[in-house]
Design brief:
heterodimer, A: alpha/beta, 16 helices, about 65% helix, elongated, B: alpha/beta, abc type-2 transporter like fold, 4-stranded mixed beta sheet, about 10% strand, transmembrane (chain A), membrane (chain A), cell membrane (chain A)
Chain lengths: ~400, ~400
């Protein structure tokens, strides 16, 4: 008897999975938003940001000194990868006009009498005008000028020491008591794509899968055919197996989509992938299942399929921000940390980035993995209840 | 049944205010999202990012350096690692943003004049924390090194100003334009809020135009407008436009008077520009609702179109870093022109010039697409709605 029940329940899981596949692929809007859009977003985003960093930002150098020293500084700035001294002029006004027309993005000014002051041992100053209305322009301008001035300072100091009779080697050593070295890990160019793309993959699958599920479930509710569609699941605990079976379909599709992104897209655009693929798959199972169960729960939130599309789309970018994309999660206010804990992508992205980008092993992020399953079980319970509710509601 | 512009307008207003979910989407969500972003980045610049310190020296000097690093605004020493492996693990787990290593014999080497390195391995993946930590590490360690050198020079008989001039013969005067505190709250809120809002404008407007077609009420609307397509469209959408404008004014007030982003433009002018942006988004919405074959397809396409806009605005990653093709391609999103115009006008205080003119032209193109939308919508209304 028990044996027979088990077989029946397994049969139910496969039946539900099969029918869910059929439903997904028979609605063109669903196929488009779920499968085609996900792949399009993956390729498209990767292409757009594939340059990673930008170089040679045009700046104007206002050289009021016009000495060999000031020319040297201008050349040093031009030689940095970050900046390009597109214009050299003696008038600050001219530089301002160039800036206002968007031709240069920053201004570096060398004051009159710069070389003289330097020779006298007074400390002259180079002025940098960085455009902080676009933060990267500002950062890039500042970094390059600071670096050039640092190098210049070193040259001047060492020259001075050598002229005082200190040998070159010793001069180099006395100048700095110890070396200061900063080494970026994982994203060695500190590039935009390497940082953004893995996060976008998870968010895209979450957003578009939820949209698709919203359309499907909304259709069932709008046409009042929910119970009818799943009429083959009438036994006592069948809503549990129905939920599992339906989830299986999404698990398979989303896993394939994510694997295409991880294996093909990341390879094509040469993004680093340092994780063990099997461990990544094992980690992604509860991530996708959480998203799927959340999608089933949303059935009761949205009576019309349009509501689901609108809401999920609007919240896509805010959830992206919750993953710590633009603002580090450690600096979040408490309420934001609590809210973000309930969104599958938050933990999902954290774990996925650790595995695929930072090269952690699954056992090193054990706690994240366990929490992910916790969230999954939490949503599973509500998903079963939701499915049961609609099976019964329309039967009566 | 009453007919004409005002009757359609009134009916739509009643629909909006008696449909809680619509009201929630139009008013609730944008307001909620604005507060969400404002509160999220309230600090302006992230402080006390956790880093791990591996002090292999454990002397007075290495401790001093550790304290100095901990005292920087961006870094907080979350814990001291017992060994390199432990430190590496916490970096890989993403618990800390960097590992700083002070080598063995650090103090001894400095006293002996032997060169050794203090190294900061920072996670380059999180761009903002990476930048802040790298800068503060350079500054703190640099100051520490300069302090040690200053002492040596003074002991050699130089006065303090002389010693300072020896260490850094040239100063850098940094002028931060337009965002004096380099606040990320100013920077990101300015784009996040309108970006989320334009998605709302897009999907709600598509819904407003498309639901008529979905429920096949096209002929009714057409008759109610006395057969004038212009009346039908404007009366239908005007209530939404007005509500969006109110939310827009609220958003701009929040940005420039509550968050206090330094503002160089005229508040009335800015809101007038925002109104034109709303109309342009709605033109696109009209076009998409008319050209697609079903409401859900229109919403999916329109929603993705609006959601993708942010990545192409060239705001957090400037256009110089995109390929030439993408640079031009990015103009197919009205948000690109909106964002650049707003930054130039409100933040930089640039008077109208040739660059601004380009953005205006780009926006006008969308208005023309809206005109095509009117023609297509007319056809669909005559038919009654979407084909099923």
């Amino acid at each position: 008897m028990i044996f027979k029940n088990t077989i029946e329940n397994f049969a139910l899981i496969f039946e539900a999975c099969k029918r869910e596949f059929k439903m997904i692929f028979s609605d063109s809007a669903v196929v488009m938003s779920y499968i085609l859009s996900t792949l399009a977003v993956a390729f498209f985003y990767s292409y757009v940001y594939s340059n990673e960093v930008f170089t040679d930002l045009p700046v104007a150098v206002v050289d009021s000194d016009q000495t060999s020293m000031s020319h040297q500084i201008s050349r040093m700035i031009d030689a940095t990868p970050e900046l390009h001294a597109a214009y050299t002029t003696a008038s600050l006004e001219k530089a301002k006009t160039l800036y206002q027309e968007g031709i240069v993005k920053g201004i570096v000014a060398i004051p009159k009498g710069f070389s003289r002051e330097l020779q006298k041992g007074d400390v002259p100053a180079i002025s940098v005008y960085g455009d902080a209305s676009y933060m990267l322009y500002y950062k890039q301008t500042l970094t390059a000028v600071m670096q050039s001035v640092g190098t210049l300072n070193g040259q001047v100091e060492i020259k001075k020491m050598i002229s005082n009779g200190i040998p070159m080697q010793q001069a180099m050593h006395t100048r700095r008591p110890f070396g200061i070295v900063g080494i970026p890990l994982f994203n060695i160019n500190v590039g935009y794509a390497t940082f953004l793309i893995p996060i976008v993959f998870i968010i895209a699958v979450q957003t578009l899968q939820l949209t698709a599920m919203g359309i499907l479930n909304g259709t069932l509710r709008e046409k009042r055919i929910f119970a009818e569609t799943f009429s083959y699941a009438r036994q006592k605990f069948s809503s549990v197996f129905l939920t599992l079976g339906r989830a299986m379909a999404y698990l398979i599709i989303s896993m394939v989509l994510l694997l295409i992104q991880i294996v093909i897209v990341m390879h094509v655009y040469t993004f680093p992938q340092r994780g063990n693929l099997w461990e990544i798959i094992v980690f992604l199972i509860p991530v996708i299942l959480s998203i799927t169960f959340l999608g089933m729960i949303m059935t009761s939130l949205f009576r019309r399929r349009e509501d689901a599309i609108m809401t999920v789309t609007i919240f896509s970018i805010p959830t992206l921000v919750l993953c710590g994309l633009s603002w580090p999660t450690t600096a979040f206010p408490v309420w934001a940390k609590i809210v973000s804990a309930f969104i599958p992508s938050t933990l999902g992205v954290k774990g996925f980035i650790s595995l695929s980008q930072f090269g952690a092993s699954l056992s090193e992020i054990r706690d994240v993995y366990i929490q992910m399953w916790g969230l999954c079980v939490f949503y599973f319970v509500f998903a079963v209840l939701t499915n049961r509710k609609y099976l019964r509601k329309e039967n009566n | 049944m009453k007919k004409g512009f005002f009757s359609i307008f009134k009916k739509e207003v009643i629909t909006i205010f008696t449909t809680p979910r619509l009201l929630l989407l139009i008013l609730g969500v944008p307001v909620l999202m604005s507060f969400y972003y404002a509160s999220l980045m309230d600090e302006g610049v992230p402080r006390d990012l956790p880093v791990v310190l591996l002090d292999q020296d454990k002397t007075k000097l290495s401790r001093q350096l550790g304290l100095m690093l901990d005292a920087t605004p961006s870094m907080k020493i979350a814990f001291e690692a017992a060994g390199e492996l432990e430190g590496q693990k916490s970096v890989r787990r993403g618990d800390v943003f960097a590992m700083i290593i002070i080598p063995k014999d650090f103090q001894k080497n400095i006293q002996k004049g032997i060169y050794s390195n203090v190294t900061c391995y920072y996670n380059g993946d999180y761009l903002l924390p990476a930048g802040l930590i790298y800068k503060d590490f350079q500054t703190a360690a640099g100051t520490f090194a300069a302090g040690a050198r200053l002492k040596t020079l003074q002991q050699g008989g130089l006065t303090t100003p002389e010693a300072m001039a020896t260490i850094s013969p040239v100063k850098t005067d940094v002028h931060v334009l337009f965002n004096p505190y380099t606040s990320y709250s100013y920077y990101l809120n300015l784009s996040f809020m309108p970006m989320t809002f334009q998605i709302v404008i897009m999907v709600v407007s598509i819904y407003a135009f498309g639901s008529v077609l979905k429920y096949r009420q096209g002929r009714e609307l057409f008759n109610q407008a006395n057969g004038s397509i212009i009346t039908a469209i404007f009366a239908k959408i005007l209530p939404y436009t007005l509500l969006f404008l109110i939310v827009g004014i609220f958003m701009n007030t929040l940005l420039f008077y509550r968050i206090n982003i330094p503002f160089k433009g005229n508040f009335f002018g800015l809101n007038l520009f925002f109104l034109s942006f709303i109309l342009i988004c709605q033109s696109m919405a009209l076009f998409l609702a008319s050209v697609m074959s079903s409401l859900r397809t229109a919403l999916t396409i329109g929603g993705s179109y609006a959601a993708l806009a942010f990545s192409f605005a060239g705001y957090t990653f400037p256009p110089e870093g995109l390929s030439t093709f993408t640079q031009y391609f990015s103009y197919i999103f009205p948000f690109t022109s909106y964002m650049r115009f707003t930054v130039n006008y409100a933040i930089r205080g640039i008077t109208f010039n040739s660059e601004q003119l380009h953005y205006m032209i780009a926006l006008t193109v969308f208005a023309c697409i809206g005109v095509i939308g009117i023609l297509l919508y007319n056809k669909k209304l005559q038919k009654g709605g979407y084909d099923i």
